[in-house]
Amino acid sequence: MRRGLVLVALLVCGLAAFLALGLGFGDLVPRPGGLKLAGEFLGAAWRPALDYQADFVPQNAPAFLSVALAALRKTLLFAAAAMSLSLLIGTPLGLLGSALVPARVRLPVRVLIALMRSVHELLWAVVLLAALGMSSLTAVIAIAIPFSGTLAKVFSELLDEAPTTAYRALRGTGATPLQAFLGGLLPVAAPDMGAYAFYRFECAVRSSAVLGFFGFPTIGYYLKRSFENLHYREVWTWLYMIVLLVLVLEWWSAHLRRRFVA
Amino acid sequence: MAHSFAAAAVLRGIDLRIGAGELLAVVGPSGAGKTTLLRILSGALFPARGRALVDGQCLADLLQGSREQRRQLRAHRSRLGFVHQDHALVPNLRVVQNVVAGRFGQRGLWRALRSLVRPDQGDSEEVLRVLERVGIGAKMFHRTDTLSGGQQQRVAIARALFQHPTALLADEPVASVDPARARALVQLLVAVAAEIGLTLVVSLHDLGLAREFFPRLVGLREGGVIFDGCGADLAQSEVDALYLLDGHDQGQA
Q1: Nearest Cβ partner of A183 from B80, B87, B112?
Q2: What digits encode the pLDDT tens for the residues B48-106?
Q3: What pTM value is reported for the model?
Q4: In total, how many domains does chain A have?
Q5: CA angle A129-A134-A138, nearest 5°?
Q6: Do the chains contact at B82 and A179, CB–CB below 8 Å?
Q7: Do B77 and A169 touch (CB under 8 A)?
Q8: Is A187 inside a domain boundary?
Q9: Is A38 domain-assigned?
């Protein structure tokens, strides 16, 4: 009964949002030639570019595929650097934000975590570009701030939800809280923490790619350029590369999980 | 050095003295207060009224006392092995790591951490010895959750022995083990305790096992002691009184 009411209430809220925004299919008026463009774009999906689509390419331009590989590498590097920084910052914050820590430490830490992760990495990038200028470190920090926050939040939740029987048993043998934590709680939560960190690495790869829109030399930079030049076959090449990257990471993480968790 | 326990007015007017090196089984139905009694003896719980003394010292006073007294409480706990009903092991660590953790309370942070990551030769040899004593020496480097329930309970016993305990407390150690393995586990606990001269207090659901292996039985029911003495002297009427179901405690866990 209660659950039914909640469901109805949620539906009403959703409907209210639609009405408030005045959403209707009538608003979807295609721009002149827009549908044709969309058709061209979709049609290009079957023929991703393996070479420049432009009619004129400078003599000394590097081969398209070598540019693509360099972009792929840069995308991965930005993600790896950002993720390492996030683990470095997010892990201690996550430990300090867990319920085992006294409230006078835990609560300020949780506020800090909330602040870090409530601003999206693209917004951090806007702010940091203005403050620090265009450097690779700017992009890395922009990703690392919200990612540290999310890692910290989820890590502390995983630690809070892990069974505490071993922790309490070690406390019973005279171990200090920190010793009991390291020997009886952290190892319990560690596999889930590792799996989550790996999932976040996939997210970092996507973010790193998108940050290219701001001019960082990741896939997004080339994707935006190809799109603006209406080189849709090139756009699909970039999209496929992101998909491929995420799939490879997914496979890799599954492989690691089989080895260490199961 | 050996532990001797003296608990008074615990639960419901319990006055219990346990001598050093004594082998004692606490029996009684679920909810009788067996776990509470054991936790009070271990210093994990303090009686609301009355006192629990170990070697003549009140544990609750130590907790409230000076820094030095709290250190004493910690030292006391570090020499008190406790085998939990649910093993209380870390399932995804290796057996050796779970056993080595038994001595954390006697070590500094750094030494404890190092022994967990890479136990030195002394630790390794000793862990192997205690594992062999409980019959699972071959499992030293296995992941703990690949072991059966009975084997995991043996790991828990090994962890307690690795503490160099002066007393061993076991709360329903065979609750989740089949009868044949349960008997072997109780036999092992009693044999090890007698061998090293440990004080052993085990709570058991199964009166038969208690009578078979323990010279002294304490029967608990609804927080009170029904009998305290040798199992052979136990009259049938006392056994009946222990497990008798009457209206109001049916359905209580």
Answers
A1: B112
A2: 777 778 877 777 777 777 888 888 888 888 888 999 988 899 999 999 999 999 999 88
A3: 0.81
A4: 1
A5: 65
A6: no
A7: no
A8: yes
A9: no
